[in-house]
Amino acid sequence: MIHTLFILNNRGDIVIEKHWRTATSRSAVEFFWAKVQACAHPKDVPPVMTGPKHYLINVFRGKMYYLATVTCEVAPLMVIELLHRVADVFVQYFSKATEDVLKQNFATIFQLLDEILDNGYPYITEPNALTSLIAP
Q1: What is the pLDDT of residues 45-54, one digit of tens each?
Q2: DSSP string covering 72-129, please?
Q3: pTM higher than 0.90, yes or no?
Q4: If phi over 0 gives left and psi between -120 and 50 gives alpha, with beta otherwise, what is residue 119?
Q5: Contact between 62 and 101 (Cβ < 8 Å)
């Protein structure tokens, strides 16, 4: 399902990059960022885009873009809900999900992403279950 999760700041810089299946080229992020810059406001960015090689599904939360790349047809609302859940888990763990906080807690974030997604498929998304596995 999800090949790569990119978390971008509001300048288009990659803060976190996590690959599950195959490494997605950063050209997908460049394509996405060109579309973002063409929009007047972050809320105007379409949640689902068709890129040259991937479908790009994104949400904007707390001045951060959570961008998932997929290569096959999936239910986009499921991926959007998953991205919102990832952002919610980060807020629950770190009280806010800003660029600095994500960089400071890099190791914990990768552990969380490994539990939330198993080979790109949603696995454990319930915050209570995650806190029992990984201490906040």
Answers
A1: 999 999 989 9
A2: S---HHHHHHHHHHHHHHHHHHHSS--HHHHHHTHHHHHHHHHHHEETTEE----HHH
A3: yes
A4: left
A5: no
The pair of three-digit structure tokens given for residue 6, joined into one six-digit string: 């990119």
Q: Residue 22 pLDDT more than 90?
A: no
* Residue 32 CB partners (closer than 8 Å, separation 6+): 49, 51, 56, 58, 65, 67
CA distance 60 to 64: 6
Range 89-95 average pLDDT: 93
